[in-house]
Amino acid sequence: MMNYSVSAGLVVGIFIGFQKKAYTSPENLPALVALLLLYGWAVIPMMYPASFLFDVPSTAYVALSCANLFIGINSSAITFILELFENNRTLLRFNAVLRKLLIIFPHFCLGRGLIDLALSQAVTDVYARFGEEHSANPFHWDLIGKNLFAMLVEGVVYFLLTLLVQRHFFLSQWIAEPTKEPIVDEDDDVAEERQRIITGGSKTDILRLHELTKIYPGTSSPAVDRLCVGVRPGECFGLLGVNGAGKTTTFKMLTGDTTVTSGDATVAGKSILTNISEVHQNMGYCPQFDAIDELLTGREHLYLYARLRGVPAEEIEKVANWSIKSLGLTVYADCLAGTYSGGNKRKLSTAIALIGCPPLVLLDEPTTGMDPQARRMLWNVIVSIIRERRAVVLTSHSMEECEALCTRLAIMVKGAFRCMGTIQHLKSKFGDGYIVTMKIKSPKDDLLPDLNPVEQFFQGNFPGSVQRERHYNMLQFQVSSSSLARIFQLLLSHKDSLLIEEYSVTQTTLDQVFVNFAKQQTEIHDLPLHPRAAGASRQAQD
C-alpha cells in the first residue's frame, strides 16, 4: 500500500497540474483521493491470489494487467453507453442490474466513480451557466458512496481469501485426498525401515520421512510415493534413480519449494508442514540447478549467506575463506558468478549449502560438471561433515561417488524405494553373482590358445553361467549361483590343466544393480511406436 500510495499521489498530481475541475475542486478532490486509495486497498489482495495461477512472473504481470484494463475499461464504458438509451426501459433495467453485479470488481468501482464525478461536475457547470448554484456531495451513496463502500469491503474479503489460499484451506477442505493403493511386493529392507519409522523410529534421526507423498495436479500416479526413511547422525544417505524417479521432488518438499500432498517429514525434530522456517535453519541445500546471482562474486555470495545463517560478523571472512579453499574457488573467488564455468557454479552452490554448519545437508547432484580434482575435494568435505556427526543426503549418477561416500543408499523407481541398505548388502542381494576373467596361455608360441576346454569346464562346473566376452586369449564368464570359495577352489585346482595364465574374480558392480532397477522406470519397450517406426519394425520382422 505504501508503494501504491506513491503511484496514486502521482495521479492526483497530474490531475492538479492539468487543473481538471471535475477531480480537483475542493469538493471532489477528497473523493478522488478516496477512490484511488480504496482501489489499491481492494485490488492488491485481489491480484495476489490470482498470481498463483501462473508460474512465470512476467507472464502473470502481462496477463493480469491486460485483465485489469479489460475489466475496468469495458465495464465502465458499457454501463455508461447503456445509460444513453433513456427511452428504452429494458436496457435501463438491464443496466441497473449490470451495475449491481459489476460492483464486485474494484476496477469497475474506480472507473465508474471517475465517470460519475465528471458527470456530477458537468451538471454543476450547467447550473452555473444559468446563475444557479448546484453542488452534490460526491460521497453521497447514489454518487460514489456505494463504490467506496464496495471497495472497502472487497479489500477485507479478498485479504481473507488470500490468507485462506496461503493456508491451503480450499485444498484441504474441498479436494479429497486421492485414494492410495496398498503397497505390494515391497522389498524386505524397505518394509523394515517403513515399520521403524511408523512405530516411532530412533529419536536421534536428523531427518525422518513419514509416508511422504507428492501427486502433481492433473496426474494420477504419484511423483513421490509414501517414502519412509530415517537418516542418522554421521550418515551419508544416497538417493539413486534415473531422471524422473522423484529425487529432486523429494528435495523440493523437504525445502518447502513445493507443497506436500500427504505425509510429513521432520528435520532435527521440526516438521516441514508446521515449522518450515525452523527447518530452514537446520538445513543446507545445493539444488540441481544453480541458484546464484550472476552479478555477485563468489566471495560476496558466501558473505551474504553467512549473514543469513547468523555467522558472527567477526567470523564471516574466516568462514568464507574456508569454503573457497575447500571447494577450490581461490582463483575465481572475486570474479562475477556469471562468468563462472558450469563446474565452478556447482562448487559455489555446494559451498553455499555448507555455510553455517547445518545438521542436515541436501546435495542434489553436486559434482555435475566438476573436474576430478574438485570432485575429490568435495568428497573430502563430505567425509569431514560425516565425522562431525552431521547428516548428508546425496543424489548422484556417479556410482563411484556413491561407493566412496554413502554409508547407506536407496534406489528410487517411479517415486518409491525399491531397495535400501549398504552398498555391499545391495550387491549381495540384487547382484548377478561374480564376473570371472581369465587369460589362457598357448602351449606353443606359434599356436593360438585353445579356449574350448575352458568353456566346457565352466558349462560343466557352473551350470547357468554366461560367457560375456571371448577374445584372442581372454575369456569372461558371469557366474550367478555359486559361492566365492568354490569358484577359487575350482580355478586353482584346474589352473595348470586348463593353461590358465592369470584370472580375476569380481563382484557385480553397483552400476549393474542400478541398471537392473532403472529398467523398471524406463520401460522403453512399452512406449508406442511412431507409424513410420512401426512400419520399419514390421519390415524388419518380415
UniProtKB/TrEMBL annotation:
Keywords: ATP-binding, Membrane, Nucleotide-binding, Translocase, Transmembrane, Transmembrane helix. The gene is ABCA4. It is found in: Membrane. Pfam families: ABC2_membrane_3 (PF12698), ABC_tran (PF00005), R1_ABCA1 (PF23321). Residues 207-439 form the ABC transporter domain. InterPro entries: AAA+_ATPase (IPR003593), ABC2_TM (IPR013525), ABC_transporter-like_ATP-bd (IPR003439), ABCA (IPR026082), P-loop_NTPase (IPR027417), R2_ABCA1-4-like (IPR056264). It is a multi-pass membrane protein. It comes from Pongo abelii (Sumatran orangutan). This is ATP binding cassette subfamily A member 4.
